Structures are given as C-alpha cells and as structure tokens.
Amino acid sequence: MNTPVIQVSALTKSFHRHGQRGFVAVDNVSFSVPQGQIVAFLGPNGAGKSTTIDMILGLSSPDSGHVKVLGGSPQKATCSGRCQAVLQSGGLLPDFTVRETVQAVASAHGVRGRVKDVIKRWDLDSYARRKVGKCSGGQQQRLRFALAMLSDPQVLILDEPTAGLDVEARRKFWRIMREEADAGRTILFATHYIEEADDFAERVIFISEGKIVADGPIEKIRASVRGATVSAVVPGASAKDLAGLPGVKGISVNGDRITLDTTQPDDIARYLLNHTSAYDLLVSTTSLEDAFIELTNPRDGNEKDAA
C-alpha cells in the first residue's frame, strides 16, 4: 500500500486564556490523504479548519499527535517546495511589484525559467508592474496561486482559496485546479462555498467543534445523513414487500403512490422499474448543504464515518 501523502494522527491543539481553562480548537483529529485525491475540508467558522491546516503546514505545533507530509515532517515538505499553500492573507511584500515578487520566489526555488509561464497562466500580465500593495484582494490572491505553483509541488493546501475572487475568477481557478489534479497533484482545501466542495472534491471531511463528524465520498455522506426518497405510482403494490428491500428505512403510502426512504436510491429505483408496474418515478437526494447543516450542528457527537 502506498504511504499517504498527508497523515494526520490524533491531533489536539488548545489555546490557553488568562487564568482560564484552555479552549480546545482541534480535538483528537485523524485522517489520511492518498496521492492524487482532492479533499474538501468543511466546517463552520471556528470549527478548527484553519488550525488543522496550520499544523499540516508546520506553522504551529500540536499539543499532542503528529503530522507527516510526503513521509516526513511538514517543515521539510514545505521548505523543499514539494508542499505549497495558499492561505487567506499575509505572505506578500507590498512594495514589490507583482513581477518582482514572482521573480524573487522563483529565484529562491531555482526555477526562474518558470516565471513567464506562471504569470501567463494566472493572468498576472495586466498588472505585473503594479506594486502588490496597490493590487485588489482578488489580484493578490491570484498572485498567491502563482507563487504556490512555481516549485511544481506535489501537494497543495488551500485555505479559503477563492475568498475575494469574482465569479469568473473562481470559475477559472477551479478549472486550473482540475487540470492540476488530473496531473496527479494532491489537493486539500478548506472552503465556505459548499457548492465548490460538491462540484470539485472527491471526498469531504466535515469538522465541527474541533472534531471530525463525517469523512467520506460526497454521495455516502449524503446517504449517511438522511439518505434519499424514491417515490412512484405503483398500482397494487404491497407496501410490506417493498419495505423489506435492502436499504429501505421507511415507507409511506398515499393511494397508489408509494414513497420509500432509502440509503440506496439507485437500486430501489431500478427495482421498481424492472420488477413492478411503477411509473411517474421521482428520486430526491439529500444535498451536501443539508448534510453540512445537520452534521455541524452542536451535538454530543461521535464521529460519523461515511467512508
């Protein structure tokens, strides 16, 4: 089995306040990410996303637990340029021009030959001579993307990557990220835009109050929350027989229309169409937003693993 590109093991991180009991921001968090996977890290404000990302990047140390990136320490992976990050703010010198910034970082990584291509790929040409401090928030964010790609990293860690971008810039960003993922890069991104996770991620990790509450493919997370409903007109059908089908959690009958709550909507729909006289069939699935709301509400909460 291949070694995970990112390995997070029992991470815990507290912040202590004057004379008060420490606030636990990350509480015994564990997960791993294999090479080439695209993972969305979702949770409400204050859930522990950014704190976890800081530890994955080696920007802060856990109270307990450990992190490995590309088989070694986070610091080694980031210093070598094999792991790069795009964070929400910081890291730019306001008195440098955009081009000077790209050239300086390229020199540090020994890749000056990539400057022209990176500037073009991230649409920096039109303001390459502008000082960074005079750039808009969206322009600065595109510059951060360009800097992250200079070293040709194997791993990209993105914290709210499209914050400050307009709709068209967001669309282009995700198009490029898809291309990078297709090339084999591993991408872990935290976002508030649930539709971005739904459209782009192969896997979602939900975190709430410092704990992972769900981790798995999007479809399985949807099913693990409330599943789906399959409704059809089935003349003369036996509700008792249908209730015994695999994955059926509940059934209701209104005349000839039967509605089944199920974790296996595709299988149930196929059965109804192939083995009964069903027609006017409707399938309704739980949205990722519904799952987000339910899973991140305060709870006693044990981790729910949808993988």
TrEMBL record:
Bilayer topology term: Peripheral membrane protein
Keywords: Antibiotic resistance, ATP-binding, Nucleotide-binding, Transport
Short name of one Pfam family: ABC_tran
GO MF term list: ATP binding; ATP hydrolysis activity
UniProt KW GTP-binding keyword: no
Record localization: Cell membrane
UniProt cross-references to Gene3D superfamilies, sorted A to Z: P-loop containing nucleotide triphosphate hydrolases
GO cellular component annotations of the record: plasma membrane
Chief localization: membrane
InterPro entries reported in the protein's UniProt record: AAA+_ATPase, ABC_transporter-like_ATP-bd, ABC_transporter-like_CS, ABC_transporter_ATP-binding, P-loop_NTPase
Single GO biological process annotation from the record: response to antibiotic
Every ABC transporter domain range: 6-234
Name under which the protein is recorded: ATP-binding cassette domain-containing protein
